[in-house]
Amino acid sequence: MLVLRSRLAAALAARTLAPQVCSSFAMGPRQYDGTFYEFRTYCLKPSKMNEFLENVKKNIHLRTAQSELVGFWSVEFGGQMNKVFHIWKYDNFAHRTEVRKAVAKNKEWQQQCVIPNLALIDEQETEITYLVPWCKLEKPTKEGVYELVIFQLKPGGPALWGDAFKRAINAHMDLGYSKLVGVFHTEYGALNRVHVLWWNESADSRAAGRHQSHEDPRVVAAVRESVNYLVSQQNMLLIPTSFSPLK
């Protein structure tokens, strides 16, 4: 019995003294702040892009009266053509439920926008994301183009790859050729996925900055570390619509 008690005491002491493994992704404000961002991607029928966007433009005020639209873009490069991408902000899940109920009851929105546009859409996808704790949503002060980079990372979550990923993002930020808008970690959708939204003055300035980053030893070192956790990645060049809050 004395031996058993001694072993138990030693185990408890070891647990108390052991360093706690944490990540800048896994711990932090997102655990306590209910704010999240819904990513919506619509694939439209060929030749129907202009009709869809014009219809949304005329009626978007009916939708934004219910919740905040962060940005609305058309996809210029990367992935499927005739695609739009938009981000909506919610205080919490109860807030989203209230908004969805209000939107469903709004006959003007339903009849003037939703019903006509349904015939123009081939596919819809939605993801729920949180801003990572070390990042806040930034709003560029002038118009430009946006790049959405989607990283699919290895299973294990932010506790495994969060710190290395943060170092890679910061290394690119330090060069200053592109401005970080936000880093989002998926809560509902493909797990271990991170979306990084960048702003650039133009597609050409983005290309020039990328060439510069490939020759920077700080970026190269950070990317070599983070790539050990990478499964795949994809990027899209996004053009903001005339009614997008993020220009």
Summarize the structure.
The protein has 247 residues and is of the alpha+beta class. It has 7 helices and 8 strands. Helix content is 39%, strand content 31%.
Describe the protein.
- This is Protein NipSnap homolog 3A-like.
- Residues 37-136, 146-245 form the NIPSNAP domain.
- It holds the Pfam family NIPSNAP.
- Belongs to the NipSnap family.
- InterPro entries: Dimeric_a/b-barrel, NIPSNAP, NipSnap_domain.
- It is a single chain.
- With 247 residues, this protein is of the alpha+beta class.
- It has 7 helices and 8 strands.
- It has an 8-stranded antiparallel β-barrel with strand order 1-3-2-8-5-7-6-4.
- A hairpin with a 5-residue loop joins β2 (68-77) and β3 (83-90).
- The longest helix is centred in the C-terminal third of the chain and has 18 residues, at 158-175.
- It is globular and about 55 Å long.
- 24% of the residues are buried.
Question: Secondary-structure map with pairings?
Answer:
Layout (H helix, E strand, L loop, with lengths): L1 H16 L18 E9 L4 H16 L3 E10 L5 E8 L2 H13 L1 H12 L2 E11 L13 E9 L4 H18 L3 E10 L4 E8 L2 H12 L2 H10 L3 E11 L7
Helix pairs in contact: 2-4, 5-7
